[in-house]
């Protein structure tokens, strides 16, 4: 029988964090897991889970999820789900409550954002104490989490988000590359660099793009690759 996991994301927003639960479902399936989901009714998260091929359990609000915890436990039991995966710290209240009521459940949490202040008060000691593994999406995030969370180091692991590179494979022929360079105004022999994502200050992408200007001083001139 396949192992089963419930992805929990009770967010009414729609950003990279909210997109991730549905994005990992194909890889989970490839590795032999059966994925389930818990989301807010009418949310983009819920619709993305449907698009990924699963029919999520939905609730009207985070508060409703807490007082309908027996319904969620019944769903977990009916489907033989023993692994929970949260993506927002606010969802750990529910995840920790589920584990408290059914200790055989294993709770995993992916910290997508990183923390800067300690989370060692009684509430966080209780909620994070129920986490079997905390995944940090980078080594820098992991170092911050080691200082912030009330967990032993062996329960805080680095796990890069990762992407499927197949859609980004270079499949342009020489003529198409030259045409694309001309369209973008990129001279032959120069390296184009791109940064995909939201260009807001908090994202760090503007700051991260500044070192590119220094590349001509650091690297010798060499033939361009790609397009």
UniProtKB/TrEMBL annotation:
Coiled coil: none annotated. InterPro entries: Glyco_trans_4-like_N. Residues 14-165 form the Glycosyltransferase subfamily 4-like N-terminal domain. This is Glycosyltransferase subfamily 4-like N-terminal domain-containing protein. GO terms for molecular function: glycosyltransferase activity. It comes from Halomonas elongata. SUPFAM superfamilies: UDP-Glycosyltransferase/glycogen phosphorylase. It comes from the Bacteria. The lineage of its organism: Bacteria, Pseudomonadati, Pseudomonadota, Gammaproteobacteria, Oceanospirillales. Pfam families: Glyco_transf_4.
């Amino acid at each position: 029988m396949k192992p089963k996991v419930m992805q929990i994301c009770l967010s009414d927003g729609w950003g990279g964090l909210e997109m991730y639960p549905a994005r990992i479902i194909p890889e989970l399936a490839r590795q032999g897991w059966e994925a389930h989901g818990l989301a807010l009714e009418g949310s983009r998260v819920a619709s993305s889970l449907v698009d990924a091929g699963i029919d999520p359990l939905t609730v009207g609000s985070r508060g409703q999820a807490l007082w309908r915890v027996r319904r969620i436990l019944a769903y977990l039991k009916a489907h033989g789900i023993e692994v929970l995966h949260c993506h927002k710290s606010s969802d750990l209240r529910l995840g920790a409550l589920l584990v408290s009521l059914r200790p055989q459940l294993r709770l995993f949490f992916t910290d997508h954002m990183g923390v800067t202040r300690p989370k060692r008060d009684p509430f966080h000691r209780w909620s994070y104490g129920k986490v079997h593994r905390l995944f940090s999406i980078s080594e820098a995030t992991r170092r911050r989490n080691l200082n912030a969370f009330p967990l032993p180091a062996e329960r805080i692991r680095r796990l890069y988000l990762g992407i499927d590179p197949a859609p980004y494979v270079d499949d342009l022929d020489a003529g198409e590359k030259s045409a694309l360079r001309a369209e973008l105004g990129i001279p032959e022999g120069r390296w184009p660099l791109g940064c995909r994502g939201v260009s807001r200050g908090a994202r760090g992408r503007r700051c991260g793009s500044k070192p590119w200007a220094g590349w001509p001083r650091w690297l010798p001139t060499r033939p361009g690759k790609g397009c």
